[in-house]
Amino acid sequence: MTPKKRMMAALVGDVPDRVPVFLRDLTLGLDVAGLGTPEVCAGEFDANLSARSVIAAQQELGHDAVVGSIQYCGIEVEMLGGEVVFPSHGIPSVTRAPLDSLEKIDFIQIPDARRDAPLSNIIKAYELVNRRIGNEVAVVGNVEGPITKAGILRGLDILAMDMVSDPDVFSRIIRLSNELTIDLCTAMCEAGAKIMFVAAATDNPNLFGSEIYRKYTLPGLDQIVDIMRKEGVPTAFHPHGIFSHGEFSNLVDATLDTGISGFQFAEDNDLAKAKEHWGNKTCIMGGVNAFTTLLLGPPQAIREETIRCLDACKDGGGYVFMCSCSLHRGMPLSNVKELVKTVASRGSYNADFRRDPPPNKQKGDWVTCSHCGHKYQLIAGRGLACYGCPSAINNCGMTRCPKCDSKQSIEKCTSEHLSSLLRRHRSQYGRTSFR
User: Fold this and answer.
1) Which of 2, 32, 175, 430 could pair with 57 as two cysteines, CB 3.0-4.6 Å apart?
2) C-beta neighbour count of 135 within 10 angstroms
3) Is there a contact between 22 and 7 (Cβ–Cβ < 8 Å)?
């Protein structure tokens, strides 16, 4: 199985040959390629050096999915009149937000991600990466969540004051930020991104509360997911905060209702609880703490934490191994290699569970009949059309359409589950397993 197929299978809840690794390495590739930060990122942005860095990192580390360009928070800031500093071998950072006064909000013009540099050159980097390795490796778009983007453009402290003292301005900034994000998303898809990753560090309900999360983050995310669905691209979401347990755990189901395909849990979340509660509803994403274990090591600690994460989330598929947050230059490459190597050696699935996702698989175990196009639940096929057939309780690898009676194959583990369910159901009524 190629890295791309491995990643896409896990994201839709299936079981690939092994757990895929997505490092979300935003600037780490600059270390692999030996390039200075300003050399690539400053000015109009160098698409060729960016693509070279992304590809060099993937070849060196062996992860299954890559962000299609070197990226950093605030890539639109200078275009909108703000200021960014580019340390020679550090991470770019915003030193002045572009919308730091109300007057600037009134006159802002949204840049064209396909035409205006540096955004257009970041999109070009995506094209180059997709052309070189996109057939084998999953190319992922990376954008910010609604409040996260707004905090970058307005300044987080000022945005917090807007929320309290001027809600209308707060709402305007959020809407504007999401317009920027959606335009960038579509441009990334046109350039070859096959997954969209929404990074939402400051959409964290610990910062602004559950009400703001529901009122602004979720509608903004819903817009992104809807646009990406039309592009045929699944969306993954990564808010910071504790969601696996505690007061914000009730926000997870509301977030999944937007239609996201994957939810990445940040540091301090309980991945075992996340898998137990939502593993049948979404792809669980997460893993080693990037700020402690991965950064500091030693290798034994990285291996042990990686294995704990695999043990918590691997079973049943639908799991992508990630770190707790993005990786940037300065992270020891030897530590990252240890992580990837451990997942490769300990993340394989038993051969009995290895399978490519069937072409008609849909969420909720719905299938579409390949003969008449009727959409039905597998349980309806086995419980109605197949009810009473001796093979139906004996792990038959087929389902039958309740409308036209045509047969088509289903996955082995699904068939075993349905057969067991049918046997138990008939026994409750004192019936034999079949007519």
Assistant:
1) 32
2) 9
3) yes
Radius of gyration of the chain (CA): 23
118 prior amide bond cis, ω within 30: yes
Fold topology of 3-348: TIM Barrel (3.20.20)
**401 in helix, strand or coil?**
coil
Give the C-alpha separation, 409 to 411, whole Å.
Answer: 7
For residue 298, cis peptide bond before it (omega within 30 degrees of 0): yes
Entry pTM: 0.80
Structure-derived torsion over alpha carbons of residues 417, 418, 420, 421, reported in degrees to the nearest 10: 110
Mean pLDDT per 10-residue segment, the chain (435 residues): 96 95 97 97 97 98 97 94 96 95 86 94 98 97 96 94 94 95 97 97 93 96 96 96 94 96 95 95 96 94 96 95 95 97 93 44 59 70 67 76 79 67 54 44
Q: Contacts for 85-93 with beta carbons within 8 Å, 24 or more apart? A: 86/37, 86/38, 86/41, 86/42, 87/37, 88/36, 88/37, 88/38, 89/30, 89/36, 89/37, 89/329, 89/330, 90/37, 90/329, 90/330, 91/27, 91/37, 91/328, 91/329, 91/330, 92/27, 92/37, 92/41
> Residue 381 has what DSSP assignment?
I
Domains of the chain: which residue ranges?
A: 3-348, 363-428
155 in the Ramachandran plot: left (φ > 0), alpha (ψ -120 to 50) or beta? left
Q: Among candidates 285, 233, 296, which has minimal Cα distance to 262?
A: 285
CA distance 70 to 68: 7
Cα dihedral 293, 299, 303, 308 sign: negative
CA distance 173 to 387: 57
**H/E segment holding residue 39:** helix 37-41
d(CA 223, CA 16): 30
Nearest to 54 by CA among 69, 35, 73, 75: 69
- The candidate with the shortest Cα–Cα distance to 314, out of 285, 357, 281, 336, is 285
Amino acid at 175: R
Q: HSE (CB half, 13 Å, CA atoms) of 265?
A: 31
Tokens read off for 249: 């755990």
Residue 290: both structure tokens together: 């990037």
CA-CA distance, 310 to 320, in Å (whole number)?
A: 10
Amino acid at 288: V
Alpha-carbon distance of 219 to 350, in angstroms, equals: 40
